[in-house]
Task: structure prediction
Amino acid sequence: MRKGLHYIGYTLEFLTCLFLSATVLLTLIQVVYRFVLSMPLPWSQEVIMISFVWFVLFGAALSVKHKEHLKVELLDKAPPVVKRSLQAIELLVVFVFVLVFVYYGFLLVRDNLASGQQIGFLPIKVAYVYAALPISGLFMLYYAVKGLIVK
Result:
């Protein structure tokens, strides 16, 4: 079980790197095609946007995993007992926020799947972009719960 969960973390890191690489590479290709070859690629904007959304949201999940999410540094100087309590409160706040994030993310995906709205030039439903919200949120929930349980 632990090994399987460990692979989930590696998969998340790999996908984050993949989406970042795709964003950078496609942006470079688009610049070359648009300004050097004078032949803009109409689909590249949408693909860059999709990969950037997934990169940012998976990166947010990784920040929760590594406890690098937004926090108040002044609290790090507190006594150990107070510090542990504040860290638990911090993770509870993250947990509640992410619960709301996941819930409304699922609603957004459901509503957009029903509408069938597509992205510009691509035959891809907007719901697949919005799916990054609940999927990354589930990763965040997992890492927030893990942070609360494992000290």
